[in-house]
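Technical annex B. To support the medicinal chemistry partners, we prepared a structural model of the target in complex with zinc ion, based solely on the information shown next.
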Amino acid sequence: MHIEEQKVEDLIQKATDMLDKAYVPYSKFPVGAALLTKEGEVFSGCNIENASFGLTNCAERTAIFKAVSEGKKEFEYLVVTGDTDGPISPCGACRQVLAEFCGPDMPVLLTNNKGNKQITTVSELLPGAFKSEDMV
Ligand SMILES: O=c1ccn([C@H]2C[C@H](O)[C@@H](CO)O2)c(=O)[nH]1
Ligand SMILES: [Zn+2]
C-alpha cells in the first residue's frame, strides 16, 4: 500500500500537533500518532499518563481507540512521533493492538522531531502476533 507524499506529510504534521496535547506529568515524554482510515479520515492520538503508571495509554493506542470507538475498523497508514534520538519505537502493547486492528502489511512510519524516518509494517513490528484466528 502506497500513499501520496503529501498525505504522509499531513499525517506527520497531525502526529506532531498531538505532542502539545499529551498528558505526561510523569515521564515528560510526549508522543503523537496519526492514523489514516481507508475512508481518508485521520484520527490522531497522544499519550495519556496516570499516577498509577501502568494505566498509561500510549499515543498509538489512543489514536486506534478513538477511531474504533467511532466505528472505523479499516486502516491504511499510521505515523508515530516523539523526541527520540532515532525513529520512535512503539511498545509491545501497542504492537499487539496494531496487530488486532490493522492488516499485517499496513505501513507504519516511525519518526521523530529531528526528521528521522523509518518505514515499517504491522507484521514487522510484531512477527507471529497472537490473533483471534489462532483460538480453536
Ligand atoms: O511509542 C511509544 C512509546 C512510548 N509512549 C509513551 C508511554 C509513556 O507515556 C511515555 C514513556 O514511556 O511514552 C508512547 O505513547 N508511544
Ligand atoms: Zn505503546
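Notes passed to the chemistry partners:
The pocket of 2'-deoxyuridine (ligand 1) is lined by residues 24, 27, 29, 31, 47, 49, 56, 58-60, 80, 88, 90-91, 94 (CB under 6 Å).
Residues 5-17 form the longest helix (13 residues).
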